[in-house]
């Protein structure tokens, strides 16, 4: 996978690394607070948004403290019709 693409779904090993914890700590402390997805029917995946929310909770941030990113106007004016 290209380094430019930021996947929304992470494998357990990658999710643990993203949260800076071991896989066993991830399974014990983080996983219970996140949605467990099974997109391929074989491998488990975790939503990066859920991991970010857990990290924000850990840091003591409230959902209302996080401001949405500013809207960027479309580059192509015809994009607004899609």
User: What's the number of helices?
Assistant: 3
Low-confidence stretches: none
The rounded Rg comes to 16 Å
Q: What gap, in angstroms, lies between the N and C termini?
A: 28 Å
Instruction: Return the average pLDDT rounded to an integer.
Output: 80
Strand content: 5-15%
Helix content: 25-40%
Profile the largest sheet: 3 strands, antiparallel
Shape: extended
Structural class: alpha+beta
Number of DSSP E strands: 3
What is the ordering of alpha helices and beta strands? EHHEEH
- The side-by-side strand order for the widest beta sheet comes to 1-3-2
In short:
The chain is an alpha+beta fold and 82 residues long. It has helices at 12-18, 23-30, 48-58, and strands spanning 9-11, 36-37, 45-47. The mean pLDDT is 80.
Structure commentary:
The chain is an alpha+beta fold and 82 residues long. The protein is 32% helix and 10% strand. The chain has 3 helices and 3 strands, in the order E-H-H-E-E-H. The protein has helices at 12-18, 23-30, 48-58; strands at 9-11, 36-37, 45-47. Strands 1-3-2 form a 3-stranded antiparallel beta sheet. A hairpin with a 7-residue loop joins strand 2 and strand 3. It is extended and about 50 Å long. The model has no long low-confidence stretch (mean pLDDT 80).
Name its key features.
82 residues, alpha+beta, single chain, 3 helices, 32% helix, three-stranded antiparallel sheet
Topology:
Layout: E1 9-11, H1 12-18, H2 23-30, E2 36-37, E3 45-47, H3 48-58
Antiparallel strand pairs: 1-3, 2-3
Helix pairs in contact: 1-2
């Amino acid at each position: 996978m290209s380094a430019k693409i930021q996947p929304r779904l992470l494998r357990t090993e990658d999710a643990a690394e993203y949260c800076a914890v071991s896989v066993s700590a991830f399974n014990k402390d983080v996983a219970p607070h996140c949605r467990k997805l099974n997109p391929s029917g074989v491998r488990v995946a975790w939503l990066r948004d859920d991991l970010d929310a857990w990290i924000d909770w850990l840091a003591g941030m409230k959902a209302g403290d996080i401001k949405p990113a500013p809207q960027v106007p479309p580059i192509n004016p015809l994009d607004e019709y899609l």
